């Protein structure tokens, strides 16, 4: 595990990106299969009707098996789509099996934007998020663009908006001892790796698969 006390966020981000990039294709496939086994039969995944995932980039652990499983089970699945304008905004759009995808400005594949198929993030049941680094307390270090943090900023304004459940997905080698969170960082309920679950709060995280209704009218 990396000790973070002497590293800046930029240094830590560079080190952890190098770690995950160093995983060869065979180890990446193994990690993806182990991640699938960690989540596919978990109550949180099974009970979610609307869930968002991502397509891997830059060595991120691949949730593709989970995406395929969700679609086979008839779940509504969503991928992030970056807006052309404003360029810092990200939305979540429903995607179907076999749908053609196009590279965005970061060369990450995404559906062709279609507002009729986009869904407000607070109406999703489960959001599976990529990350660069994580700790066992729900801390998440992203790529630095702030797209997820901006999409989830409503949670700071409306603390009773508990949807969606936020799970980070990562390789085990991305774990650090402690992340210093900035004011805009949105903590995770848990991080799931190819080896283990790291729940920020066992009383709240859905190890029992609890999905919350949104009691916050301002989020509707």
TrEMBL record:
<protein>
    <recommendedName>
        <fullName>5-formyltetrahydrofolate cyclo-ligase</fullName>
        <ecNumber>6.3.3.2</ecNumber>
    </recommendedName>
</protein>
<feature type="binding site">
    <location>
        <position position="60"/>
    </location>
    <ligand>
        <name>substrate</name>
    </ligand>
</feature>
<feature type="binding site">
    <location>
        <position position="55"/>
    </location>
    <ligand>
        <name>substrate</name>
    </ligand>
</feature>
<dbReference type="Pfam" id="PF01812">
    <property type="entry name" value="5-FTHF_cyc-lig"/>
</dbReference>
<dbReference type="InterPro" id="IPR037171">
    <property type="entry name" value="NagB/RpiA_transferase-like"/>
</dbReference>
<keyword id="KW-0479">Metal-binding</keyword>
<dbReference type="InterPro" id="IPR002698">
    <property type="entry name" value="FTHF_cligase"/>
</dbReference>
<dbReference type="GO" id="GO:0035999">
    <property type="term" value="P:tetrahydrofolate interconversion"/>
</dbReference>
<keyword id="KW-0067">ATP-binding</keyword>
<feature type="binding site">
    <location>
        <begin position="140"/>
        <end position="148"/>
    </location>
    <ligand>
        <name>ATP</name>
    </ligand>
</feature>
<dbReference type="GO" id="GO:0009396">
    <property type="term" value="P:folic acid-containing compound biosynthetic process"/>
</dbReference>
<feature type="binding site">
    <location>
        <begin position="9"/>
        <end position="13"/>
    </location>
    <ligand>
        <name>ATP</name>
    </ligand>
</feature>
<dbReference type="GO" id="GO:0030272">
    <property type="term" value="F:5-formyltetrahydrofolate cyclo-ligase activity"/>
</dbReference>
<keyword id="KW-0460">Magnesium</keyword>
<dbReference type="GO" id="GO:0046872">
    <property type="term" value="F:metal ion binding"/>
</dbReference>
<dbReference type="InterPro" id="IPR024185">
    <property type="entry name" value="FTHF_cligase-like_sf"/>
</dbReference>
<keyword id="KW-0436">Ligase</keyword>
<dbReference type="GO" id="GO:0005524">
    <property type="term" value="F:ATP binding"/>
</dbReference>
<keyword id="KW-0547">Nucleotide-binding</keyword>
<comment type="similarity">
    <text>Belongs to the 5-formyltetrahydrofolate cyclo-ligase family.</text>
</comment>
